[in-house]
Amino acid sequence: MSLATRLSPPALDDSRGAFFDARPPASGDVDLSVTIGSLTLANPVMPASGCFGPELGRLIPVDEIGATVTKTVFAGSRGGNPAHRLTEIPAGMVNSVGIPSKGPRGYLSDLHPAYAELGVPVIISVGGHRPDEYAPIVAELDAAGAAFEINVSCPNLDRNGVDIGADPDAITQVVESVRAVTDKPLIVKLPPMVSSIVDCARAAESAGADALCVSNSVPALPLDSVTLRPALGNVIGGLTGPSMRPIILRLVWLTSTSVQVPVIACGGIETANDALEYFSVGARAVQVGTASFSRPYAMVDIVRELTQRCRAAGATTVAQLVG
Amino acid sequence: MSLATRLSPPALDDSRGAFFDARPPASGDVDLSVTIGSLTLANPVMPASGCFGPELGRLIPVDEIGATVTKTVFAGSRGGNPAHRLTEIPAGMVNSVGIPSKGPRGYLSDLHPAYAELGVPVIISVGGHRPDEYAPIVAELDAAGAAFEINVSCPNLDRNGVDIGADPDAITQVVESVRAVTDKPLIVKLPPMVSSIVDCARAAESAGADALCVSNSVPALPLDSVTLRPALGNVIGGLTGPSMRPIILRLVWLTSTSVQVPVIACGGIETANDALEYFSVGARAVQVGTASFSRPYAMVDIVRELTQRCRAAGATTVAQLVG
Amino acid sequence: MSSTGTAGLEGLVRVRPPETGLRPEPTWDEAEVVAHEVIGGRYHRLVLHSPSIAARADAGQFVMITVPSAPGERVLLPRPMAIHRRRVATGDLEVIFNIVGRGTDVLARAVEGDALLLTGPLGRGFEVPDGDGPVLLIGRGIGVCAVMGVAEDAQAQGVPVLAALSGRTRDTVIGEADCDELGAEPVIVTDEDGSSAIEALETILRTRLDGTPPRVVMVCGSGRLTRLAVALGREWNVPVQVSLEAHMACGVGYCHGCAAPIAARDDVEGPLVCVDGPVFDAGDFDEVA
Amino acid sequence: MSSTGTAGLEGLVRVRPPETGLRPEPTWDEAEVVAHEVIGGRYHRLVLHSPSIAARADAGQFVMITVPSAPGERVLLPRPMAIHRRRVATGDLEVIFNIVGRGTDVLARAVEGDALLLTGPLGRGFEVPDGDGPVLLIGRGIGVCAVMGVAEDAQAQGVPVLAALSGRTRDTVIGEADCDELGAEPVIVTDEDGSSAIEALETILRTRLDGTPPRVVMVCGSGRLTRLAVALGREWNVPVQVSLEAHMACGVGYCHGCAAPIAARDDVEGPLVCVDGPVFDAGDFDEVA
Ligand SMILES: Cc1cc2nc3c(=O)[nH]c(=O)nc-3n(C[C@H](O)[C@H](O)[C@H](O)COP(=O)(O)OP(=O)(O)OC[C@H]3O[C@@H](n4cnc5c(N)ncnc54)[C@H](O)[C@@H]3O)c2cc1C
Ligand SMILES: Cc1cc2nc3c(=O)[nH]c(=O)nc-3n(C[C@H](O)[C@H](O)[C@H](O)COP(=O)(O)OP(=O)(O)OC[C@H]3O[C@@H](n4cnc5c(N)ncnc54)[C@H](O)[C@@H]3O)c2cc1C
Ligand SMILES: Cc1cc2nc3c(=O)[nH]c(=O)nc-3n(C[C@H](O)[C@H](O)[C@H](O)COP(=O)(O)O)c2cc1C
Ligand SMILES: Cc1cc2nc3c(=O)[nH]c(=O)nc-3n(C[C@H](O)[C@H](O)[C@H](O)COP(=O)(O)O)c2cc1C
Ligand code: FES
Ligand code: FES
After folding, report:
1. Is A154 a catalytic residue?
2. Among B9-18, B289-298, C167-176, where is mean pLDDT lowest?
3. Which terminus of chain C, N or C, has fewer Cβ atoms within 10 Å?
4. A43 annotated as ligand-binding
5. Is the CB of C257 within 6 Å of ligand 5?
């Protein structure tokens, strides 16, 4: 319903005008493009699933980022978790939104049109409770997505609370089944809390993934320090934000040195410099989540600054910059 | 060599005198004791391995804490990792000290005498690269330790970089072999980054552990944000401190509801309130690491405040306080 | 907004029917801190220069304020704050807040001349229906800030306003000066003299209204007061609008952090406080617990 | 301490033979900030009231300063700082620091009357050998602070001191006033006039010493200057002592965070800068890279 809100145009003295207009000159000199399977993105900056919606298009020039990523779409309708769904901790936040979803049909009718209007490739995130839930969703959304992000980091009700994404065999099953129903590029988004992320990454690659996203949020149980009761309605949530960065940097380093496909880094990225940290350990693209909440223009700033830093260093690609 | 340093007595106007003297009245009313196998500790507060040494006995009244825990002792001599071994990040620090060790013999001759003088039970932490390295060390140290903490969270050179502690079978092997050579209580210290900590916890319990310590530090790769080079000589280190707390709270909750033996919480504990957070999710004792660096008296403060908070609430045990 | 968040309001509120007018498009803005003072001994009043937001905000809308980073410390999520006053002539808006945690603690250290990043105006505000009688505003504590914009609009439209301003003590009651400035009739009730008790307040309001029911009741800041408003609204057969709070991350509708716990079914999400609210209709009387 | 940490000093330094005297027992103390001023345009000078530490510290020892927590996020590790001056009469000690990161940034906001938690005195300081000739101190930048305690002791013992104080510009050189106060002879050399270049400094030192070799050279703050000191020390056949830096957590010897990369073998740990140092002997000349 949020997207149906009818809005008046912004006032003319709108301060964001300058930001919208301040596009850096077309960058014939700098090539930020990145290729994921058959899809080439103009630049390597995109939102993290669940941390973006077409609503943000009102606040920033979305066409400057490389792609959009939808919130994870599940097979059925889900209401999501009880309140509170968010809390903040030092250098991080924990959410237990619980992935409300209206299913693929609801996505196509209520959400996709607004995504499609934004003018950048739409990567549709798909989730499931069981390995066999993924392929039907992707099949139904095949025409809509420029690529799919396979979110295997959801608690799997069949498997004793262990993530699908913690089990290389389950990953293989999911990715092979999805690969069978689409030719679109597949990004597999892994969970961080696994015994061997390298085994998970290799399983995804062998089963046909065109890229990996490393990683989802870190499971956590924040307490209200006064009441000593769980701070979130769902008790457990996902920790995100800058305090995760060194944890995820290690995982990106481990995976990017173990697979051939590009690794998209996700975890605590707030600035172009944070993105460069990930590029320097092998990432080829980045996703921005938590940072957009406080600074809606964080992604656009990163794209612009990456361009500028390449120029300033006389580099034509980010690879040269961190090489 | 550090312990051999000969020191002059502190000056009389020593400000810590008041702290040393400020012991709370003997607590017939409050019972903070905790039992680990055959060992009963006066209270549930102890240092985290590697974050304590007899040197701290010069700064705080160590006999007020429940136990001491040694730095992990390995079979052979190890020099530890190259500099830098420490760095700080928002709400956390990362260390790659690398566990320098002089082996069990070196421990007995150079370190144990000073530990033994402190007047509280000495829990000796033991580590290994392979499952078969543990039992001989414990056998050699059996007479010295009041209990042993089996640190299975060390990178295992035999197993492709995967922790011994991430593999329930390897845990079983380690714990059974150690159980065979000692009757002293065994605490198994688990790593946090595992696919199913519950499986690891159950394996340790079945193999004869008397308690679990949850958990060791979170593997991380901090970069120097200016040079974009690794901030630590060893590239990878362990993240500790308050930003881990919600991550470890979840693991303590998961394990303490899955095993019968007591769970000792370790991760980001700075205050009595932090300890109470862990008690409220099922922990029976706590270890304090990073917090002691900035506030050497952190552990003693926690013991004193737990006593006071019990009294203030009319509780005779911590369990009543968080019940 | 309710001091208890949305807890206990299940069934008490519902999303209003689709609005007929256009809602102002949100923007973000680096707003200069024009003034910062402590009022009522504990509240921080910030005057922020943001013509684009001040000029367009509807009564009852809010802003997300990004907490500036101080060295050695950062607060990650922006903080939602009601737009207490819109001063279109000077391009300023006012927010008043309470220090309750890390974020407001850092905000309280903003000084004149600082720039604060605002996103707004956000959410769906109050809507004054046509009709007779005054508008009855009921605010408690910081909740007064959510409703004061209505008094600004009412003054412009010549609609009389009766504003019940509740607080613990006389000097912590917010909004009296605003009422004076806006020609609204303030009713100050406090815990210390007992006048803020539900029965006492009800009696005072009936006396002041003197038999003329208001055309609408708008309430924020207390579950108890919301229940009173609903009861009176039913008796008078007038609409009751209530402003709620929820923990928020994005403020514009995409993070789904702020769903109110008032969904009809388990597989349907509750309305989002940031875009479907923060102002909701009070529910059918039958739904009231 | 070296601006490059211990990097590049492998083989250049070694642990000194066991000390003969007793080392002061460390303690922790809530020290009051007695004064805080910015000097040389960029350095922060803190005067801290801590009689128990000031009265007992040896020259070249250091303190760990716990960074006070600001609301919000905190700096976790204490910061090692040389004890620049010990003022036993007033019970104060002085530290001078540079803002280089998060920790020093927060420390720079300490104001008079604040309490700072100190642990100290720590480490093994400089040891002035018996002998003839003056003590030659060489300090660069903030490294001057590590050696100034030696000038304090030398004054008490009537030993002459020649202190080479190096810095980028004239006004950022630390220690001139201290030398005046302590009767030490300062030699100010700077990058801006070229006098801090190794050859220039060597010439200046030889001229000032006028053929009388010092009894000891003590150096801190620069790898280049350390190499110069080692070369001169060898020529004169006098001991050279150098103060090093390392990232530290505990400061007292148990965390093993500060091992210097100068171990003889892979399976043996390097000396701990916090207890075996921060002052080391310069190594055999043959070891110098
Ligand atoms: C639409 C709306 C308007 C508001 N208007 C005002 C106002 O005018 N004046 C005022 O003082 N307060 C107002 N609030 C409440 C204000 O947002 C919270 O007091 C503030 O976010 C607390 O932040 P903190 O860091 O100090 O507290 P903490 O408790 O440390 O916050 C931790 C997290 O919980 C969130 N949180 C905590 N309490 C609340 C709450 N009551 N509502 C929403 N999020 C919360 C914070 O945003 C943060 O993400 C409003 C809330 C909403 C939703
Ligand atoms: C024995 C000793 C004495 C010192 N005396 C002084 C002094 O008198 N004046 C002064 O300005 N500085 C001195 N230093 C250096 C000072 O400790 C660092 O500049 C300071 O710790 C930097 O902290 P930060 O948070 O500002 O920097 P950051 O770079 O943000 O610090 C990150 C981490 O690295 C550590 N670190 C960074 N640089 C250094 C360094 N050079 N040495 C040790 N740890 C470092 C910090 O302690 C912290 O744990 C001394 C260091 C040592 C070891
Ligand atoms: C409010 C919120 C909702 C999220 N929803 C999803 C989701 O639906 N699917 C998903 O794969 N990840 C989701 N995530 C995780 C993010 O995509 C991302 O992995 C995580 O936030 C780490 O990035 P960050 O540190 O930049 O925020 C969500 C994160 C947040 C904060
Ligand atoms: C400097 C340092 C050294 C450590 N050495 C060891 C060790 O030898 N053995 C071990 O099991 N854990 C070691 N740890 C991990 C701690 O015991 C503890 O698990 C971790 O610090 C989390 O607790 P904290 O957040 O309170 O610091 C070390 C931690 C630090 C910071
Ligand atoms: S705050 Fe993000 S959807 Fe409401
Ligand atoms: S700083 Fe801890 S051993 Fe040196």
Report:
1. yes
2. B9-18
3. C
4. no
5. yes
State the Cα–Cα distance between residues D286 and C262, nearest whole angstrom: 79
Domains and CATH numbers, chain B: 3-317 (3.20.20.70)
Question: What digits encode the pLDDT tens for the residues A97-128?
Answer: 988 889 999 999 999 999 999 999 999 999 99
Q: What is the pLDDT of residues C29-64, one digit of tens each?
A: 999 999 999 998 889 999 999 999 999 999 999 999
Distances (CA, A) of A243 to A86, A187, A194, A217, A246: 16, 25, 18, 11, 7
With residue C63 as reference, give the H or E element that holds it.
strand C62-65
At B139, the pLDDT band (50, 70, 90 cuts) reads very high
Q: Which chain A residues contact residue D71 at CB under 8 A?
A: none
- Indicate which CATH number applies to the domain containing C41: 2.40.30.10
Where residue B9 falls among pLDDT bands split at 50, 70, 90? confident
Q: Give the domain range for residue C77.
A: 27-122
Distance C257 CA to ligand 5 centre (A): 5
Check whether residue C149 and residue C270 sit in a common domain. Answer: yes
Candidate from B167, B194, B239 with C-beta closest to A247: B239
Mutation for testing the A interface, residue in B156, B221, B227, B252 having most A CBs under 10 Å: B221
Cβ contact A293–C249 (<8 Å): yes
CB contact under 8 A, D74 and A90: yes
Question: Is there a domain that residue D249 lies in?
Answer: yes
Q: What is the pTM of this model?
A: 0.94
Backbone angles phi, psi at C163, to 5 degrees: -120, 110
Residue D103 lies in a domain: yes
Shortest Cα distance, chain A CAs vs residue B220, angstroms: 4
> For residue C249, how far is its CA from the centre of ligand 5 (angstroms)?
6
In a domain, C83, yes or no: yes
- Residues of chain A with C-beta less than 8 angstroms from the C-beta of D73: 90-91
Query: Are D68 and D141 within one domain?
Result: no
